[in-house]
Amino acid sequence: MNPRRLLPSLALFLSGCASTFQGYPSLAKRAIEDAPIAEAAPAPSPVAPEPELVQNVDRLTAQAQAGGTAFDKAWPAADRATRAASGAAVSSEAWVAAQTALSALESARNDSVSALASLDVLFVERSNAAAEGKASGGIEAIDAARASALAIVDGQNDRLDVLKGRLAQP
Fold it and tell me: What is the pTM of this model?
């Protein structure tokens, strides 16, 4: 490093530190800090969502539940097939039968996964509309339906992971 360049930079830096600033803010208590605390404004009453939104949320909730029921009906066959294929070699007859049963199980849960995706889209659209002032209400109902559908899909995912864990991976 060249000392000729360092010395002027150091002198400039130190001169900035040595200067005195006039106008530091005072730490004394301000008048507003002694003012009484204002009462909080009452929260606005929730607005009832439109009937179309309620119908759509109810339809998607029923769709998610139907997907859960279909998954539950297809579960025993997939469970038996994966138990039979446990330890079987990849591409063996038992392994292929188990993969087919898993595919049927995945297909049976399509309604619940599709309903969850639709509820996610509806939630985002409604949140954006509320933020822009174009709509109000309904977000809580959508969120509750999403939570219900998400619980169904998460349960299905957990059960599928157990079945897939039994099978040899290619």
Answer: 0.70
| Closest to 143 measured CA to CA, from 71, 46, 66 | 46
| 132 domain residue, yes or no | yes
d(CA 170, CA 164): 12
Question: What is the extent of the structural domain holding 75?
Answer: 51-166
- The pair of structure tokens assigned to 25 is 């803010």
Q: Are residues 115 and 30 in contact, defined by beta-carbon separation less than 8 angstroms?
A: no
- For the packed helices 110-131 and 139-166, what is the interaxial angle rounded to 10 degrees? 150
Nearest to 80 by CA among 57, 60, 104, 58: 104
pLDDT (tens, 9 = 90+) of the chain, 170 residues, equals 576 777 777 777 766 666 555 666 777 887 777 777 766 656 555 666 788 999 999 999 999 999 999 999 999 999 999 999 999 999 999 999 999 999 999 999 999 999 999 999 999 999 999 889 888 888 999 999 999 999 999 999 999 999 999 999 88
How many domains in the chain? 1
Amino acid at site 164: K
